[in-house]
Amino acid sequence: MADALFVVLRKIALSLGEETLDKIGIEQVAPIMADFEHSMKQIEGELSVMQALIGQVSAHRVGDKAFDAWLDQVRDVAHEVEDIIDEYAYLAVQGVDTSSFFKRKFHQIKNFVAWQKFSSQISQVEARIQRLAEMRSRYGLSVGEQNKSKDLQPATDHIHMSDSAYLTDYSDIVGNVDEIRRLKEWLHEDRQGRTLIAIVGMGGLGKTTIASSVYKNERIKTSFDCHAWVVLSQSYKVDELLREIINQLIGERATISSGFRTMSRMRLVEVIQSYLQEKKYLIVLDDVWDKDVWLIFNHAFVRNNCGSKVLMTTRRKDVSSLAADSYVIELKTLKYAESWELFCKKAFHASKDNTCPENIRHWANKIVAKCQGLPLAIVTLGSILSYCDLKEQEWAFFYNQLSWQLAKNLELSWISSVLNLSLNDLPSYLRTCFLYCSLYPEDYKIKRKQISKLWIAEGLVEERGDGTTLEEVAECYLIELTQRSLLQVTERNAYGRARTFLMHDLVREVTSITAKREKFGIAYGGAGTAQVSNEACRLSIQRGALTLNSLGSSRLRSFIVFDTEVPCPWIHDILSRFRLLRVLCLRFVNIEQVPGVVTELYNLRYIDFSYTKVKMIPASFRKLVNLQVLDLRFTYVEELPLEITLLTNLRHLHVFVFHGFQQRSLNWLSATKIHGNICNLKNLQALQIVSANKDLVSQLGNLKFMRSLAIMEVRQSYIGELWNSLTKMPNLSRLVISACDMEEILDLKNLKPLPGLKFFQLSGKLETGVLPLIFYNFDKLTWLKIDWSGLKKDPISSLSHMLNLVDLRLNGTYCGEQLAFRAGWFPKLSYLQLSNMDNLNWIEIEDGTMMCLNQLELFGLGNLKVVPDGIKYIRTLHQMYLTDMPKEFLGSLQGNENPIVQHIHNIHIFESSDSEAVNNFCFVPYLSIVFMWGFEVETIWPDKDEFSDINCLHTPQSTGAHLALDSR
Fold first, then answer.
1. Which superfamily does CATH assign the domain made up of 156-330 to?
2. Which of 16, 189, 705, 914 is 20 to 30 A (C-alpha) from 316?
């Protein structure tokens, strides 16, 4: 709950570390800035103590209205301090970065009054901090002995939640049949050693309900000599938990008479050990929040070789990892049919067969869909609606007011309380980042790279040192959020890293309520009020932008627009009000030029104009000296001004033009020209896609932090200097090199290895038609694509040593007639694409090769008349995509009895003359075949549902696919 303090303390530390005075050089301002730094150090000390206090107390005072009111006052002060710091940074940059001496002097004179205001503003903040300290003492909000962490009784509300789940009528349980069966099997299992079993999943999935249903099963219960059930919760007192276990094992009377209430912790452990020594026991630890508590219970629950079982429920995967030999059940949300069944049982229990009336079925379906398979929400909403009249108007009103209901309706507080437990358990740095995720729309796939950059731009990611980048720290945050069951991984890249995440919609709703209440941010959806609080620090507009009546917050730090219908004048007008903005995202917005006011927003760290009609970046971008991310993908920007090379804080530069789909070309994407010397961009980590020239390829060697590079229009005369620069990039892991045209021959002989490379795409003819020896040094490569190289020798044997390869794409790579995949080759390969090899008429696949292959794509292999017989050996193959394949080849596929392909679940057949299936079926996989680009799919390619928006901005040639055979 100390999130606002966490953010402002980071900003104070960063502002004090900058030598702003030396940069500005204004004698009149020097005393003001000296006083400012002194005062900020004092404020930093006060807020640090306050943050520690809140962190120690807040988790145990949830629902304490006095504490919450005081905390609101603390947040207000934190926001005031943040405003002062950002205004300070704004004036500092404005005083330095102007185009001439006269303009600089003009700004210095104009802003002198603003500098003078700092003294009074800081005095007011110091006075408010003093009053907050007095208020804390006056109303008894100090820590005190009773608030020691881990020594508190569980929160009353949480006890009631657990008790309610424990007392559920198990005849109403729907779904999780396999999980319950597996759990019963494990409990009945005749295994001598003590077994630790875990049930893990997000709050509200029914972990306690399932554990309780099995725990109370008479057949299971009687198979154990003794049993106990204890609830841990976020706040627990170990001694009391141990006494409760003894109460249930031995009996309360015996506990009182034996003096267990006064025993020390170690003595209690010994008592449990002694009692369980010769017994087969079953103990359930419900709602475990950290691994530390197991250190005590591990000693108490003796390993006696009697077949004892310990079952724990938890929301955290790191806790579930304690379970032995993968005895872990990870609960998922219910399928829609199961959700509907459960809802009807609750909402229509009074009707015959729990049937939903037709007049309200539409709204009932929408309510069930909103729950997204979360049993807690389904049961709660169904129970409330069971008392409502079965009138369409009433059910429609309830659905449309659901967000308000979650925030205000006491009957729904159970849902919010359960979901908020996970939110309130987060440390400040992680809670702040998670609140940011609530700015995304419902069901939005949150991309790892995008959210990481946004967090960093907002200053929410901590430096860890030791060469760890902020992007890597941000990825650790995402991993931790998934470990805590708050985000779900929906897609992974070739080597297993999470690419996209999903936030359950009810979690998003509850988190949005918290973010709005705490003035962290608002996700505006166009419904309800047309007013947005001027105190909001972040704003995402998902729809209905033009319905906003009030939007003028000077406090705004992030402005993200998802509504693509907003007109240019609205954008130009609105941006003039956001003086201290750090994040500006106008992706897909219908603008043709950069709004002029953008270059006056000196605090900007992140700019996203991707998928717009912007044609030019003005030279005035030089003013944005704090800029870290510039995203211009799928725009019309064909060259960048010289001034871009002055942005020394730039970390990620993505820019290219989309010309339309051209099947046999290297130029369907256009590389962007960069003028000037890029040596100053020393913080650059990603650069895509740039046009090569003689000076650029040599300057690249100065970019030591480069991790991802895409360079096109490469000539043979550049290769030596280019490769020399690449060897100076110790962290380079992703590389795309494309020749200037289809006829340019690249000689890669005698080049030094790039040992850290994981992703590599090479497009262009290779000298002598043989893979160069450098390919034998790519030991870490997981993703490889070779385009139009004109090889005369089968390249498969030359690549077979790549044991880590997961994704292999050969497009126009080979001029020969046969390819051979031998036993033992490519043990990790999951995806194989073979395309545009006109002479290929035979593919040999031995038993034992590519034993993990999941997806095979064949495109434009005009001479391949027979389905490779060896496909029958690849039992893991589930998907085949076939595009523009010969009729003879397709004819051999017909019929379910074909022994070669009968194990493949889905075979998709396309013709490139039909565009409908590209839109409606599999846009990205199809493009990856036809258009020869797989590098950084999550960065370059939009989501499938964004394709129609691209068509509005660009008019590509008609191309596509047609589904002829599917899902056998």
1. P-loop containing nucleotide triphosphate hydrolases (3.40.50.300)
2. 189
